[in-house]
Amino acid sequence: MFGRRLFRTERARGRTTSVADGAPVDGPRGWRSAMRSKIAVLAGVLVVWGCASRSSLVSNQTYYELEPVKALDIDQSLLPVNLVVRVHNVADMGLSYKNRFELKVNGRLIAPVTEVSNVQSDYEYQLKLKPGYYEVKGTYFGAGGWSEERAEVRTRDLVRIEPGRRTILEAWIRKNWDGTPAEKVMFFDVSYQPITESGAGPGTGPAPGVRGERETAMASQPPVEVTVPTGVQLSRPGASAILRNRPVMIQINTDPDHCDVIVDDQAVGQSPLRIWIDSSTSHVIQISRPGYRTAIRYLDASRLAGEEKITLIERLEKE
Fold this sequence. Notes:
By secondary structure, the chain is α+β, with helices and mostly antiparallel strands. It is 17% helix and 33% strand. The protein has three domains: 53 residues, no CATH class; 128 residues, no CATH class; 100 residues, Immunoglobulin-like (Sandwich), CATH 2.60.40.
């Protein structure tokens, strides 16, 4: 009986021999097991090869992959301000008394450059950030009666901080007669300036061409006849030449908003809008909107000389 049981056991095992390596294989199942083993070995070789290849970095990878062994103590005063945030029309001595504004970058509350009061109209923030993308959001608090209303001030996309360029965010708070926000959500205008070697603070060096978030494609409109004073020669540079040496910032506010703005026959965007123009020449600004009469403003070079910022406020009349 014992011998019969042993015979059955050996027969049940039914061993065969592999032709490739002479190793015993248990039929089809044994063949699959051998293949799995070879695949596992091959995968291990690939993993080791991949690790070896990752240990060698090219020049473009070193900036992101390598961290300093020890941090270097850097004088913060030598680092340039590369993000400037300005908010206007926050509070005043009238019905906007005690209105305020708060700014957060990546969820962290940021203090303004100077201490603000209950009637502070303009808030300014100056930050020194590492290159990358940041989330910038602000909150306007408007006291109306017994309650306090809030409005969000933000950008349409993440704020981009680049080496050698200063990012500028600027917003005008639009309020009702009682100081409460006229809109629940407002947006920053975004522009860029180069960071000059002569100074780290904002506003150093001439401003180049500025790109704003309110850039829009405008439909072509018939030219408007402009009466120019005798003896004045108007320069009609292209859009790239408008933003050149000795720039003057022009803030254009209109009633109603979203009016088309044309500077020297070049469409530059919709109001409210902020642009930089050459102060060495005269310019013609056209402000129009369907259903309203076109407003024309002539800026003489003599008025622009020595100015850093000019604010134009236009109320268009209905046709």
